[in-house]
Amino acid sequence: MDKDLEFIESEQNYWGKIYTDIMFAISEVSPFVEEKKLKIRKYYVKKDVLKEYNKLLETAKSTNSKKSFFSLFKNNSSVDLIKDFKRKNLDDFNELEKCSSCECLNCSFNCNFKSCSSCRKGSHITFCDKDKVNARIFENFTLDLVNNDTKITSKYKVLAVIENCELHKQYILLENVKNNNDKLILYYYPGLKDDDFGEITDIDEFNFVAEIYQSL
After folding, report:
1. How far apart are the first and last CA of the chain?
2. For residue 138, which of 86, 50, 216, 37 has the smallest C-alpha distance?
């Protein structure tokens, strides 16, 4: 198969499935979720990016299926067009990819979680009990934290953020990038510019969060 046509069909198979899954989810949950709440879900807001991309892919596939032998030696403008579109909308593509595997995708519960409003780039909810607790994992989220005793700054990888909507609290689980034995569980207070953290002094609460993470 021609490499351009192979690329186009690969993109169609992958992103076409994600678009289908998202549209099916919208159809399934829309009778049970208030319209104003549905419209703040990120996959609902950004779904048209994939709709447009699939149209471009279909046009490119048709064009490449009909090209002559001599056109093989020319630049493929239709492939350039779809690559340019994807490059310009890469953040939306990445976010929709995460949405497709998020617990919120097909959820019709009228919950009290922060859900999409606390979604950070490269993250998705991987566990939710539909009632009290959910857990969000991240693709590449690191923080620089200063040790209060030594005043040394270390980089930590964020393992997960766990939300307890019953207590209106969030917890962040961290692992030192250079020392995986150095792990932290802290209260998490995300801000517009800077995030704040707090020590958990209640041992039962600490253990509860740790057990949630270990069960993921």
Report:
1. 42
2. 216
Contacts 24+ apart (CB under 8 A), 102-105: 102/126, 103/127, 103/128, 103/134, 104/41, 104/128, 105/21, 105/22, 105/25, 105/43
- pLDDT by residue for the chain (216 residues), tens digit each? 578 889 999 999 999 999 999 999 999 999 999 888 899 899 999 999 999 999 999 999 888 776 644 455 455 578 899 999 999 999 999 999 999 999 999 999 888 898 888 888 899 999 999 999 999 999 999 999 988 788 889 999 999 999 999 999 999 999 999 999 999 999 999 887 788 999 999 999 999 999 999 998
At position 37, the amino acid (one-letter code) is: K
